[in-house]
Amino acid sequence: MKKNSKYYKIWKDNILKSKCREYNFDTISSMPNDLLYGPSEEKEDFLKNINYPGEFPYTRGIHSNMYRGKLWTMRQFAGFGSPEETNQRFKFLLNNGITGLSVAFDMPTLMGYDCDNEISDGEVGHCGVSISSLKDMEVLFDEIDLSKVSVSMTINGPAVIIFAFYVALAKKKGINLNDIRGTLQNDILKEYIAQKEWIYPPNESMRIIVDMIEYCTDKMPNYNTISISGYHIREAGSTAVQELAFTLANGFTYVEHCLKRGLNIDDFAPRLSFFFNSHSDFFEEICKYRAARRIWARILKEKYNAKNEKSLKLKFHTQTAGYSLTAQQPENNITRTAYQALAAVLGGTQSLHTNSMDETLALPSEKAVEIALRTQQILAYETGVANVVDPLGGSWYIESLTDKIENECMEYFSEIETRGGVLNCIEDGFFQKEIADASKFYNDLIESNSRYVIGINKFIKFEEKIDIPILKISEEVQNKQISSINLLKKRRNNTKVQKALDSIDKGCLNNENLMPLIIDAALSYATLEEIVNTMKKHFGEWQEKAII
Fold first, then answer.
1. Whole-number Å distance between alpha carbons of 133 and 23
2. 462-487 b/e with 16+ CB inside 10 Å = b?
């Protein structure tokens, strides 16, 4: 590198201000590693498109020393059965070295129904934890210090209510809201595009999300207010470019709605975060993350006039590709996940979840989730990939593919704008059709043996016997949760509950920020469904148009 250049000196000055982990960063053979490697000459294209890590446009990462300063947050998606069972899984993960919790909710909770609604029958505690009230949230995080651990929650339609339960819990525990860290997925746009778990129509949902962003910007400055998700777009069958383009377009839409509310971009943008998939094409995924940072930084600066460098730095969580996992030869999923995790780290992720080998068959067992966590830990501490910042930077292939992904992404932005923006594209089915076509193309390649998936169309094991433990949810979970909510409704102050619900009703009508009102309702032990239904009276429900 050109160590006498002003750009190098800026980066070096930032390094001197940064913390460094106490660790041996040499190779296993004791060969010393420099923190960073780069070109001997800083040509214009290098400074414009690549630059030093921690420097605009952040292609090489958002921090000057990346993982030498702080490793990525190691999360494992967890949630099943009752709050008590999930609480035990959380403690198991924390005792095994997890550094961030990630909560999965069951389908009734995701759709805004209490556990005692007849529509919830047979689904309570399946594929996630059952949460119907603040009481359930108290049990879920029993003996877990919310000021010490970052918590991510994957929920969308009723996200603001679940978040209110969480804030109410922090208040009851006497925790300063400044100390609360984590994120809420809360990205309703990707639900309309891909995952299909929504309650309210798009415009009403956007109002609720901006309410939450506005509240957190003022009251919870260290909380990431939304996790804008490409993960589910990719899981629905999109290409890497589509995942990136549609996700960033959603992000810009949230920015625009916040600006329309009157919020200052440099107040709220630093706490927007993203959630990407890590699929099996190793280099494509790495380049996708590099392109994401560069595009976000440039557009926030040039189009939205952001001044704060924290606004320009795209932070993201990564989860390995569920879509890539196979029920056949499930142990192979351990290997798939390891390579996908490696791509995420080499791409500069801030947080990572590694899928368990058994997730195509059932909720992960303790053994499977421990292997998934150990995959991250081995990656962090044994492979050396965290010892050097952006070790792939400058590769002709990497930089060329990054440019290509960026260019194709920009083409999608132009088409989305021509079609009237993200909300119009959702309503006319543009995103849905693009993803469906991409998914069909990929599956046709597999069906025709033009692309191999080990165990599916290559190296097949016939009459395979699956010999791994399967986690099953007992019927007793539902009965226990129903008994619990019935007891809650008998013991709470129902006059206070109704008063809190009436306040939400008026808030919807008067266009007030709903967050404080919903938190008050949570503290009164109003249930999830009671709050959802109060808001439904004003906002209605969304019905998707058929796409032909």
1. 44
2. eeeeeeeeebebeeebbebbbebbee
pLDDT digits (tens, 9 = 90+) for 13-22: 999 999 999 9
Amino acid at site 350: Q
* Domain segments of the chain as ranges: 70-389, 476-539
Distances (CA, A) of 258 to 99, 210, 214, 245, 478: 31, 6, 8, 20, 40
Query: Is residue 137 within 8 Å of 101, Cβ to Cβ?
Result: no
pLDDT of residue 548: 61
CB 519 within 8 A of CB 489: no
Based on C-alpha coordinates, what's the Rg of the chain? 23
- Angle at CA 2, nearest 5°, toward 60 and 402? 25
- Backbone angles phi and psi of 126, in degrees to 5: -90, 135
Other Cβ atoms less than 10 A from the Cβ of 154: the count is 26
CB-based contact 319:277 (threshold 8 Å): yes
Amino acid 3: pLDDT: 85
For domain 70-389, the question of CATH label 3.20.20.240 is answered with yes
CA distance 272 to 304: 14
Angle (CA) 422-428-434 rounded to 5° is 75
What's the pLDDT at 467?
82
Rounded to whole angstroms, how far apart are CA atoms 372 and 367?
A: 9
In angstroms, the CA 250 to CA 85 distance is 35
Strands 315-320 and 272-278: parallel
Cα 144 to Cα 146: distance, rounded to the nearest angstrom: 6
What average pLDDT does the segment 245-274 reach?
A: 98
Which helix (H) or strand (E) segment holds residue 224: the answer is strand 223-224
How does pLDDT run across 384-430, given as a tens digit for each residue? 999 999 999 999 999 999 999 999 999 999 999 999 999 999 999 99
Helix 366-381 to helix 83-95 angle, to the nearest 10 degrees?
Answer: 30
pLDDT greater than 70 at residue 545 = yes
Model confidence pLDDT, tens digit, residues 205-235: 999 999 999 999 999 999 999 999 999 999 9
Q: Is the pLDDT of residue 547 over 70?
A: no
What region does 373 belong to: left with phi over 0, alpha with psi -120 to 50, or beta? Answer: alpha
Instruction: Tell me how far apart the terminal alpha carbons of the chain are, to the nearest angstrom.
Output: 55
Give me the sheet containing 73-78, strands edge to edge: 223-224, 182-184, 150-154, 100-104, 73-78, 351-353, 315-320, 272-278, 226-229
Enter the tokens of residue 171: 């208040």
Collapsing DSSP states into helix, strand and coil, what is residue 165?
helix
Compute how many other C-beta atoms are within 10 angstroms of the C-beta atom of residue 448.
9
The pLDDT score that the predictor gives to residue 470 is 80
Q: What is the dihedral of CA 258, 264, 267, 269, to 10 degrees?
A: 50
Are 185 and 546 in contact by the 8 Å Cβ rule? The answer is no
